[in-house]
Amino acid sequence: MRLLPGRSRDWPVSPAGQIPAGRVELRPLGLHDEHRFMALRLLNAAWLQPWDATTPENPDPRDSAGSFRQMARALNRSARAGSHLPWLIWFTPAGEHPRLVGQLTVGPVIGGSARTTSLGYWLDEGHAGQGITPMAVALAVDHLFFHRGLHRVEIAVRPENAPSLRVVEKLGFREEGLRLRFLHIHGAWRDHRCFALTREEIGAGLVARCRG
Fold first, then answer.
1. 3-state secondary structure labels for all residues of 180-200
2. Region 115-123 average pLDDT
3. CATH number for the domain harbouring residue 147
4. Is residue 135 part of a domain?
5. Sheet holding 24-28: strands in order across?
6. What is the pLDDT of residues 3-54, one digit of tens each?
7. How many domains are contained in the chain?
8. Is the pLDDT assigned to residue 142 strictly greater than 80?
């Protein structure tokens, strides 16, 4: 078991290779994903805009090939350093080839006596409501607890984001409270509801819970 943070020589890693999840898979984000990623973001621009992270200095970021390459390089440096795990969500419809449908990123990872992290995600609008996001989150959480030695995982959700609220409810995340003006989203500081799980709360794991 490799603990994080710290030099992570086993990156890139796909947790689906360790915990089979059927038609949903997490694959490490790479520069070769640029064209698929950019096409999917363009297709979902209006769908994702209300939930996109921004900064006070850049309240209206625009997706571009340059920004993707910058993001991919930065996240993979962080992954090799053990502070982030950047994955893309892939889904295989019955009788078809796998297709890119979203993104899930873990981090920053805090080690020591905390052993905690947070995760965020987005999904293609055309694949929403099919149970893909809960399974992707379940794969990531099980990997973090069973293979990375973490103790706590947190997800922060805007109160208006009903689909994400359904994800944490389905997986049994425990609500810990409201964080006022917690993150800069869509051009302003937004309140978030905070949900978390610890290793003791998941039993045989979230993949098993999701399938049940």
1. EEEEEECCEEEEEEEEEEEHH
2. 97
3. 3.40.630.30
4. yes
5. 24-28, 85-91, 99-106, 116-123, 152-157, 188-198, 174-185
6. 455 555 566 666 654 444 578 999 999 999 999 999 999 999 999 999 998 8
7. 1
8. yes
> Per-residue pLDDT for 190 more than 50?
yes
113 pLDDT higher than 50: yes
The neighbour count for residue 114, using CB atoms within 10 Å, is: 11
164 located within any domain? no
Dihedral sign for Cα 166, 171, 176, 181, please: negative
- For residue 210, give Cα distances in angstroms to 57, 135, 141: 39, 6, 12
Question: Residue 109: which domain range?
Answer: 15-153
Closest CA to 117 of 136, 89, 145: 145
The secondary structure of 118-159 as a DSSP string is: EEEEEE-GGGTTSSHHHHHHHHHHHHHHHTS---EEEEEE-T
pLDDT at 65 over 70: no
